[in-house]
């Protein structure tokens, strides 16, 4: 089985680094562990990791300064995704990190499964989804029309057969994302990353609850449906009538 990519873990706490390494390897990622920051830039150039997990409070250099140095590296290394994994959880700390160009921020103590989900989400956000069908070009459009359903993301308005459907903003965003990529299967973790971004409250149950509400409010239709692939995730399927 091929690796999903290399993850550079920069943390001076051996127990945390080992837990992260085990979960990364279980998720088919290669891990590179560094307890200090001084070797990070060289390692990025030599190993070309897919992502850097970076502690803020390192013994030799602040994670903030290290993040800033990474963002000033020559192309393409300056675009290496960075997730802060740190005990500093105040809003001002997170704001400083995002202003420096960090891609995500997770506070210790953390759920390793959430960390893996966030890594996958960041990596998918930094890699453009390939156009598998002509309809996937709709991803950048604010208004989509498929069969009898119209989704207007500018006005947060959804109509089915000309009748407006009362949906929450997040339900509309989820529906718009799925319909933008017809027939493409997304895991629950995918959808958390794409639709919810940094908000993982409720975990994958949040996705299941929103899909359930969408089906209830939209009803059943011959032209399209939100399909469940058990054990995998969801897709928006357009029915082709002969």
Give the amount of beta strand, in percent. Answer: 15-25%
Structural class designation? alpha/beta
Assembly type of the shown chains?
single chain
* General form: elongated
First and last CA, distance: 40 Å
Query: What value does the Rg take, in angstroms?
Result: 20 Å
DSSP E strands, number: 12
Low-confidence segments: 128-139
- Describe the strand arrangement of the main beta sheet, using strand numbers: 2-1-3-4-5
Number of helices: 8
**Considering DSSP H and I runs of 4 or more, what fraction of the residues is helical?**
25-40%
Order of helices and strands: EHEHEHEHEHEEEEHEHHEE
Question: Mean pLDDT score, rounded?
Answer: 85
Which sheet architecture does the biggest sheet show? 5 strands, parallel
What features would you describe in this structure?
With 242 residues, this protein is α/β, with parallel strands linked by helices. 37% of the residues lie in helices and 21% in strands. It contains 8 helices and 12 strands. Strands 2-1-3-4-5 form a 5-stranded parallel sheet, with helices on both faces. A 4-stranded antiparallel sheet has the order 6-7-8-9, covered by helices on one side. Strands 10-12-11 form a 3-stranded antiparallel sheet. Helix 5 (112-125) packs across helix 7 and helix 7 (188-196) packs across helix 8. It is elongated, with a radius of gyration of 20 Å.
């Amino acid at each position: 089985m091929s690796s999903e990519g290399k993850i550079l873990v920069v943390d001076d706490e051996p127990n945390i680094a080992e837990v992260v390494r085990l979960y990364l390897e279980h998720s088919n990622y290669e891990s590179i562990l560094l307890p200090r920051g001084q070797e990070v830039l060289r390692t990025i150039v030599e190993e070309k990791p897919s992502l850097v997990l970076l502690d803020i409070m390192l013994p030799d250099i602040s994670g903030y300064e290290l993040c800033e140095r990474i963002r000033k590296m020559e192309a393409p290394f300056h675009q290496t995704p960075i997730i802060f994994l740190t005990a500093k959880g105040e809003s001002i700390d997170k704001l400083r990190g995002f202003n420096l160009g960090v891609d995500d921020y997770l506070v210790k103590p953390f759920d390793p499964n959430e960390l893996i989900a966030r890594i996958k989400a960041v990596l998918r956000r930094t890699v453009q989804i390939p156009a598998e069908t002509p309809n996937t070009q709709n991803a950048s459009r604010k208004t989509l029309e498929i069969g009898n359903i119209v989704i207007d993301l500018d006005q947060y308005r959804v109509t089915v057969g000309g009748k407006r459907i009362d949906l929450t903003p997040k339900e509309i965003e989820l529906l718009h994302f799925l319909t933008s990529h017809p027939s493409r299967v997304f895991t629950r973790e995918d959808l958390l990353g794409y639709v919810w971004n940094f908000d993982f409250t409720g975990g994958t149950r949040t996705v299941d609850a929103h899909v359930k509400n969408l089906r209830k409010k939209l009803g059943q239709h011959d032209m399209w449906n939100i399909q469940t692939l058990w054990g995998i995730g969801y897709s928006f399927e357009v029915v082709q009538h002969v």
